[in-house]
Each structure stands twice: as structure tokens, then as C-alpha cells.
DNA sequence: ACCGGTCGGATTGTATACAATATTGTGTCC
DNA sequence: GGACACAATATTGTATACAATCCGACCGGT
């Protein structure tokens, strides 16, 4: 098992450190190829990547700390399933942090930064054209993280990174079909505001962008998700 | 080594899960008994707590994710040493998040919550009277976290928890002696504002409390705080 | 047939063994 | 005497072995 059977782990480049496995799992979750609730068996993952459970375990623990994965003692690791409450909290946090970051980004952005943002948007479009909505979603998340990075706030950027990750899970769980315009316009406008150094406008655009996103989710407290069998079966 | 030599690990109650080791190390760091830069050898820690390196490793990894510990490949784990830049970022983030949390806490606080906050302050005073400033500092941090919890924002409370942790390291590195009144008054006023449901006042008090704290640090860009031996010993 | 308990397989939790790497000490050459 | 090369040691990185726990199937009783 220690050998690397037929390129099963082509993703792993130099050293099979646990970060590689973590990144691969993280990307799969962000792209909705691993959906909330999926069991992540240690042996299985280890076999896929050609590493021992030691490595897999470290990767899962790290993902668990980012709340992408839920580890239950003696039960195993599962892709996390944020509750409605958590979903609302995540978006409240984003609405608190990200507009401020957008404003700072507009103040600090250098030409190279703007270019990078534009490239992100291009990649997003390309992914949509290639009928790869998972990849588009992941890139869209990276766009938001990039803005926090440009604002020169690595600490907050880290927070936003975990919020984006959980947002991906929330979208997987609570997205409502009908709204499909999917933000590429919003991102474009945001870049323009940042490019021209218009901080207040960038802040507003980010805020309304997040509100749009938030309202494209179905976070009503529907008592689906039956709280008790008695309630669920009383007909 | 698997046996438990002479109660060295009295801290560990039921199962020697890695969380116990993590908590013990975390408390020691918060109380400044482990200072920034200290090497955290895996064997040594394992021997102290009577667990194997597997457990220690998991604990260190978790602490590393909280940025209390810096793990360098093939080098080992060290208590983190936040740079001046990181220090400034941490306080900017706190000044963005915590006043908002204080306002929400004032809106949501139930009598039991207020009682818990008062108890925290009492414990803080007791620790100071007992000439245990480390414990007082740790309790002071828990006070801030508790406010975010009362605001019913578990996600943001988690962020603040890591910010508090890093603040503790920052205080260890950059605290300037002269300012010593050490916040107990500020906390008291804050609790009163929260108890009376005065959100705006709580927000203001928190903001100025953080500004006070921030300005009690010496975050000037002096090249002191010897980042490297080269700098430290060039005379 | 249904309910309960018990046994077996599978999976996770932990410890240990081995390999890889960095650091320190020593010796030799200039 | 000092600088470099090399060997010894210590520490971390990874894999594997073993123990503990859980889940499901089987089976006997009612």
C-alpha cells in the first residue's frame, strides 16, 4: 500500500504530506463532488491517495477544525451539514466582514491585484461555459478570499476563507433552484469599483451581493428536518 | 511509557484524548507559563502527559491551526511569536468584531448571562488578589469570548476565541510595563451596560476598551523584539 | 412474526516501530 | 588556531500493529 498505484494520486506532487490530501478533499467539497453527509472512511481515502491512515487522519482533523468535516468519536468523519442556525450565522458574519474588506481593498489595490481579480472572473466564466458549475462555485469563493487578501488583512482573510468553505456546504444544502443568475455580474461591478479606488461603492456592492446570495438560499425554519418521530408521523 | 508515572497527568480526567493535552497546553500559553518561542518537543510532552506522540501530534496540530503554535517541517513545534504586523491585524479584527458583539449581547442577554459575566469578573479579581496575573489574563480573555457567546453568534465567537488566544501571545511579546490598571474597571462598566440592555453604550465601551488595550502595547516598528539571533546580538 | 440479545465484521483510537531529516559534536586539514 | 567535512545523536515524519468501539446480522424466545 505504500507504493503509488497507477497514478491514483496524480494530485500529490512532491511529498505526500497531509496538506495534499486535505487540499484534495477540500476542493472536492467546494466543488460539490463530495456532498454534505458523505462518510469519509479513513482506509478508503488512504487507499485512494496511497498514504497511510496517519496522513488521512491529520488531513481530516484539519478539515474538521475548519468545520468542513464533522468528526464523531468512534463513528468517523463526515462532510459537515451546517444547520439553519449555522447557515444564518455564517452569512451574518460575512455581511459584517466582507463589505469592510471590499472597502479596504479598493484603497489598497495595486494594478497587479486588479489584474488577478479580473483573471479570476475570466476563469469563472470559462468554468461556466465548460458546464463545470462546481469549479465556478469554487473560483467564485476564491474571488472573495482574494479581496480580503488585497485588503492586507491576512487574519480576517483566514476567517473569510472558513466562511466561504462553509458557505459552499450551505449552498449545497439550501440552494433554491429558481435563482440562477449566479453572481458573475456582481463580481464584475465589484472589480470595477475596486479598480477605480471607490471604496464606499465597493463596500455597498459587496453588501448587496451578499444579501442577494443570502436571499437565494432557502433558510426558512421549515419544520422539515423532523424534530421528532412523533411529530413527523402524526397524520 | 504507556503507564501513568506518579500522577504527572492529573489534569487528564477520563479519556486521554488529544483535546485534554491541547487544553492543557492552551491554558499554559494563555497564562504565560509557556512563552512565545518555547520549543514544544513531542517526546517531552508525551512523557509529561503519559500519552504517545500520536496524541501529542494531534494536539499540536490543532493548536497550530489556532495559530497558537508554529509547526515547522522537520523542525518541530514552537509557541508562536506573532509579528508586529500580525499583532496589528489581530487588534484591527477585534475592533471590528467585538463592539458589534457587545451591542448584540446587550440586546440578547438574559439574567443568567449577566450573572455569569459578573462571576467572571469576580474570578478575575480573585486571581489578581492571589497574585496570579496569568490566570487573571486568561479569565479576562474568557470574558470577551463569553460576550460573543451571549450575542448568539457561535461562529464569530469562534473567531474571537482565536483572536483572544493570539492576543495573549501578543501581550506576552509587546506589553509595556507602565500601563498596569489592567481593565477590570472597563469590564465592570461593560457588564452594567449589557445588564441594562444599553446596546450602543456597550458597543462604545467595548470599542474604547479595545483601543486602551491596543495602546497599552508597544507596536512601534522598532527592530527590537529580536526576530533573529543576528539582529539580537549585533552590538 | 416480532422483539431482544449476542456474536462477528468493520472501523476508528492509540501506541509503537522504522525511516528521513536536522542538529550537534568531533576530527582533520590548512 | 580556525574552518570545513563528516559522523553521531536527537527529533520529527510516516507506516503499521494492536486494542477498543460500534454497527449489523443472526438467532432464539415469546
UniProtKB/TrEMBL annotation, chains A, B:
CDD domains the UniProt entry points to: WHTH_GntR (cd07377)
Q: Name the SUPFAM superfamilies for this protein.
A: GntR ligand-binding domain-like, Winged helix' DNA-binding domain
Which GO MF term does the entry hold, naming one? DNA binding
Recite the UniProt keywords alphabetically. Answer: DNA-binding, Transcription, Transcription regulation
Any coiled-coil ranges, and where?
A: none
List residues of the HTH gntR-type domain. Answer: 15-82
Name the PANTHER family on file.
Answer: HTH-TYPE TRANSCRIPTIONAL REPRESSOR NANR (PTHR43537:SF53), TRANSCRIPTIONAL REGULATOR, GNTR FAMILY (PTHR43537)
Record protein name field: Transcriptional regulator, GntR family
- Read off the lineage from the record: Bacteria, Pseudomonadati, Pseudomonadota, Alphaproteobacteria, Rhodobacterales
Amino acid at each position: 500500500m505504500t507504493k503509488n498505484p497507477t497514478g491514483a494520486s496524480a494530485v500529490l506532487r512532491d511529498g505526500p504530506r497531509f496538506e495534499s490530501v486535505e487540499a484534495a478533499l477540500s476542493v472536492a467539497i467546494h466543488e460539490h463532488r463530495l456532498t454534505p453527509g458523505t462518510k469519509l472512511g479513513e482506509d478508503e481515502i488512504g487507499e485512494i491517495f496511497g498514504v497511510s491512515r496517519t496522513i488521512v487522519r491529520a488531513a481530516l482533523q484539519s478539515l474538521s477544525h475548519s468545520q468542513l468535516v464533522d468528526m464523531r468519536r468512534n463513528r468517523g468523519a463526515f462532510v459537515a451539514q451546517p444547520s439553519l442556525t449555522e447557515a444564518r450565522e455564517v452569512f451574518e458574519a460575512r455581511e459584517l466582514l466582507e463589505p469592510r474588506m471590499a472597502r479596504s481593498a479598493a484603497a489598497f489595490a495595486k494594478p497587479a491585484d486588479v489584474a488577478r481579480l479580473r483573471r479570476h472572473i475570466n476563469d469563472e466564466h470559462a468554468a461556466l461555459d465548460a458546464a463545470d458549475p462546481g469549479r465556478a462555485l469554487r473560483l467564485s469563493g476564491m474571488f472573495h478570499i482574494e479581496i480580503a487578501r488585497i485588503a492586507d488583512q491576512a487574519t480576517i482573510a483566514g476567517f473569510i476563507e472558513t466562511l466561504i468553505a462553509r458557505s459552499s456546504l450551505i449552498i449545497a444544502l439550501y440552494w433554491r433552484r429558481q435563482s440562477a443568475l449566479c453572481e458573475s455580474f456582481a463580481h464584475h461591478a465589484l472589480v470595477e469599483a475596486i479598480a477605480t479606488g471607490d471604496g464606499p461603492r465597493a463596500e455597498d456592492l459587496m453588501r448587496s451581493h451578499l444579501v442577494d446570495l443570502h436571499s437565494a438560499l432557502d433558510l426558512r425554519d421549515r419544520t422539515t428536518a423532523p424534530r421528532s418521530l412523533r411529530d413527523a408521523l402524526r397524520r
